[in-house]
């Protein structure tokens, strides 16, 4: 009986040792290389499934030479499925992928935290096929037997280390873009609910040395504290989105891609928290506020619609209204154009400049060029004015340029240009 129990105990110890061996980070990376080679050589999907099993699905991201150069991915991040698609063209019995010199490493002379579950593993990689001939070094971060990140070793990015990153984020600024594509200037700290679609940021970073391909994670927290996660951005679920930057020695501004909604806008009002992280190291945090919807009364020209109507010699309307780039007819009856301008209700009187000329005419010398100043009254939302010539131009576009001369407005606007043809 004792012999049987001893045999069972020995088997259990062997099973435990084998399981521990399988979980060693170096073996995880070696298996990844082996399965990748077998999948490309045999096109057997069971090896692809084994690769997937070795990687952390939701949190996996990659930014090595293959992901950047072959996928030409601007954000420099790929998820697992996108990464494996890159190797689809290599599936041939002549393909050879070899992982060698696999070992634990320290990055930037840093040691991984003693209690950290994240282990950096170095590997030399050789890929030979009829299409590729690559030699490079990658860094695999392994956590609990799963690969969570693959990066270019030349970047020397220190993740979850006892030392601090040498960079100092000195300042961060925001700008906002509304649903019509208008952008504010950097330095804004508030936006309007229902009208803010994207938030952009820039950070002033000071570094004593150059750092290549430094991954920067962004986290935006709603007023409730919930993370604004982007499920298609290939970042961990605790973050919103990510960028990769090349940090230069000295003090410089670095610009990050916009975060927001493709078909809607920020609707939740309140104070948001905006954070920048390098791996598990927080760099800087700043808040911005989403205010109630923008008031309907403004102190600047915000055109909401414009229409053009043909008029006779007595200023009677003789055509239906048309929009920008439309055509008015018949030519022989039209003696002028009535412009119907609609805009957001004004909180004060403002002046607008109107310049109109004819396609193909000299803008300075020809009598077809005219300009005037029109005052828009406080609390109004529309204004009508006329364009008349002694002989109306035929089959030519009349160009109307409208701009505000109110330099004290809280929101400046560029010139608005419209065209209408008579034929």
Q: How is this structure best described in words?
A:
The protein is mainly β. It has three domains: 135 residues, Roll (Nuclear Transport Factor 2, Chain: A), CATH 3.10.450; 124 residues, Immunoglobulins (Immunoglobulin-like, Sandwich), CATH 2.60.40; 120 residues, Immunoglobulin-like, CATH 2.60.40. It is built from five helices and 21 strands. The strands form five sheets. The chain has a five-stranded mixed sheet with strand order 1-5-4-3-2. A five-stranded mixed sheet has the order 7-13-12-9-10, with no helix packed on it. A five-stranded mixed sheet has the order 15-21-20-17-18, with no helix packed on it. It is elongated and about 90 Å long.
Topology:
Layout lengths: L1 H22 L1 H18 L2 H9 L7 E3 L1 H7 L8 H7 L9 E9 L13 E11 L4 E11 L2 E7 L15 E11 L11 E3 L3 E12 L3 E11 L19 E7 L2 E11 L9 E9 L2 E11 L11 E9 L14 E3 L7 E8 L6 E9 L11 E7 L5 E7 L7 E9 L11 E7 L1
Parallel strand pairs: 1-5, 7-13, 15-21
Antiparallel strand pairs: 2-3, 3-4, 4-5, 6-8, 8-11, 9-10, 9-12, 12-13, 14-16, 16-19, 17-18, 17-20, 20-21
